[in-house]
Amino acid sequence: xxxxxxxxxxxxxxxxIALVAVGLLDSVYLTWIKLAHATAACAGIGxxxxxNSSIYSEIAGVPIALLGAGAYLVMLALLLLESRGGFWAENxxxxxxxxxxxxVLYSAYLTYIEVAVLYAICPxxxxxxxxxxxxxxxxxxxxxxxxxxx
Length: 150
Hints:
The chain is an all-alpha fold. The protein has helices at 8-36, 48-52, 64-81, 86-118, 123-149; strands at 58-59, 62-63. The chain has a two-stranded antiparallel sheet with strand order 1-2. Strand 1 and strand 2 form a beta hairpin.
């Protein structure tokens, strides 16, 4: 298959993989910052420290960023397994949709916490939220397009 012959489904899958890679890098960086007790490179934009050191940055002692990295890894695995066909091709897009929907809903809650409770914004958290919204949008298009192909 040449680059020009890529189907819309394959282009959307590759776009999803790229988005997941950005989200994964972002959440791995935030996890490292949290676990290493390092200072985030926010360059004076927002207040990463206030957000990343708040009580809302962990669930039962596990950094939210680590949970996000895990979710991004699962989405990446689903996207890569789709090329195997069968079960994975049929159910992978739905799995990515579900994970991205949960991610968007939880990111909305965390954004509320940042704005209304902490009065601080973490640009890296905003990046993750944007990636999740984009992934959700691409997932909806992928599912809708898959129905059209049937």
